[in-house]
Amino acid sequence: MTTETRTRKRGGGRAGAAARRGDAVIEQMPWSVPRNIDRPIEPLGPEGVAAIHDGAMRILEEIGIVFLNDEALEIFKEAGCKVVGDRVHLDREFVMEMVAKAPSEFTITPRNPDRILPVGGNHILFGNVSSPPNYWDMSLNAKVAGTREQCQNLLKLTQYFNCIHFAGGYPVEPVDIHASVRHLDVLYDKLTLTDKAMHAYSLGKERVEDVMEMVRIAGGLTHEEFEARPHMYTNINSTSPLKHDQPMIDGCLRLARRGQAIVVTPFTLAGAMAPVTMSGAVAQSIAESLSAIALFQYVRPGTPCVIGTFTSNVDMKSGAPAFGTPEYMRSTQMTGQMARHYGLPMRSSGVCAANVPDGQAMWETSNSLWAAVQSGTNMVYHAAGWLEGGLIASPEKFIMDCEILQQIQRYMQPEVIGTGPEDIALEAIREVGNDGHFFGIQHTQDRYSTAFYQPYLSDWRNYEAWEAAGAVWTPERAHNLFKEIIARFEAPPLDVARREALEDFVARRKSEGGAPTDF
428 in helix, strand or coil? Predict the structure, then answer.
């Protein structure tokens, strides 16, 4: 290789990457909604799908689901379902008739229409970590209760990374804000620090109604425009086994009546809140999901609904939840088959049980994320930043996870498996022949900067070069990136009048007391 060629090749490496990213902290992949171009893994044969479906239907018919919501009980009675106390028995014909009314695909339009999200089909969307009460980063090196500042910083990462498509629940619970007004402050932060799709917790009518109104204001929408199509969503968890609580069903009914999207995700841990067998746990999860989806479709046919899975197992020695296990992966794949059987979009998660962003955290999360890909998942919750089974949010873990997410996006790009004449590269092979190399030929030079995935966090230097550069381990590199991203963060634009209207709404609702609490 000539000196000129070597210099040009080096210019396309780290130096070239630095030139391409300009003033940006990292060179990341552009915003896009990836399509899963692989066929899903289907561990169940037709008889297996039929067996789980029949099991779920028999649970609904023979055992029933408890709904701790008086309005839901009255709706089920009106629909002709058998209601005994707070237990509802649903026959399979009714359930399947209702579930068939749910769309297999829909969109969510946030305040920035360039961030519109197609949900369903072969689209796969990634969301940030949601709802941990605690926080950990390397500067603290300790598990601490979440604060508003930490929540804001994680929201900035949510906005910054193009591979994150939606802003889920609070990326860490800011317990320094009183629960009565926490939703007002955090939603204000979410709507001003990000322009991605919003989530509302279904935890009381005030929180749900306030969030819907704030999303409407930030989008500059009339009430009619807001209700014409989904602009936000909620996610609820059943209280396994076989129970739905009052506030979550109430919140979903409110969103359904205004045309917003609903994700129903039972939290079925095999061996604790569900049978120890994965098929039994999946059947129970399906029954819990479909009972709620049937309710929402009866109330407003065509309500956008997603069937979620959070089926994993517990450690039978300690009772602690485990994630990213072989059983978790299989249950996710099985639920994907069932979601396609019912014609519903699916949600799963990027989760782990590790306590810090170490090797265990990454292999468990990678297992979870690839299970999402293999299952045909459409919405991946907690795709970046989750630790300790959902009890800790970590910015280092967030940045490490986004490296995996970008790799998944690159893996899905059709050009990676292109088979056109330039991809087969017969002329390049002819040019090199039997006794050369491909580094310096024009075919390589034309493609070297885009041919392969370029990591922003991985370090591909050999040991000696890595050691000479300070021997910085991956979590520390992620920590340094976190600090730089936050220091240079710029919020997305928001119309001044809309921002002021949000501020006025928050101030008024605070003066009214926000949402009631018992403390």
Answer: helix
Query: Quick one: how far is CA 280 from the chain centroid?
Result: 25
Do residues 107 and 119 make contact, with C-beta atoms less than 8 angstroms apart?
yes
Specify the pLDDT at position 496. Answer: 98
Residues 6+ apart with CB under 8 A from 203: 247, 248, 251, 515
Which helix (H) or strand (E) element contains residue 430?
A: helix 426-432
Q: pLDDT tens across 179-235, in order?
A: 999 999 999 999 999 999 999 999 999 999 999 999 999 999 999 999 999 999 999
E strand or H helix at 188, and its extent? helix 182-193
Task: Show the tokens assigned to 245.
Answer: 């609580």
| Nearest CA-CA partner of 129 in 357, 387, 374, 368 | 387
Reduced to 3 states (helix: H, G, I; strand: E, B; else coil), residue 128 is strand
Q: Answer yes or no: pTM beyond 0.85.
A: yes
Residues 327, 225: Cα–Cα separation, whole Å: 44
Q: How far apart are CA 331 and CA 346, in angstroms?
A: 13
Residue pair 256/236 in contact (Cβ under 8 Å)? The answer is no
**Distance between CA atoms of residues 443 and 448, nearest Å:** 9
- With residue 154 as reference, give the H or E element that holds it: helix 148-160
Rounded distance, CA 191 to CA 211, Å? Answer: 10
CA 111 to chain centre: 19
Cis? peptide before 241, omega within 30° of 0: yes
- Which token pair is 244? 């739905």
Residues 196 and 112 sit within 8 Å (Cβ to Cβ): yes
Q: Decide if 227 contacts 258 (C-beta within 8 A).
A: yes
Cβ atoms of 332 and 365 closer than 8 Å: no
| pLDDT tens-digit map of 355-371 | 999 999 999 999 999 99
pLDDT for res 19: 52
CA dist 504 and 211 (Å) reads: 14
In 67-106, which positions are buried (b, 16+ CB within 10 angstroms) versus exposed (e)? Answer: bebeebbebbeebebebeebebbbeeebbeebbebbbeeb
Q: By three-state DSSP, how is residue 200 classified? A: strand
Span 440-448, average pLDDT: 95
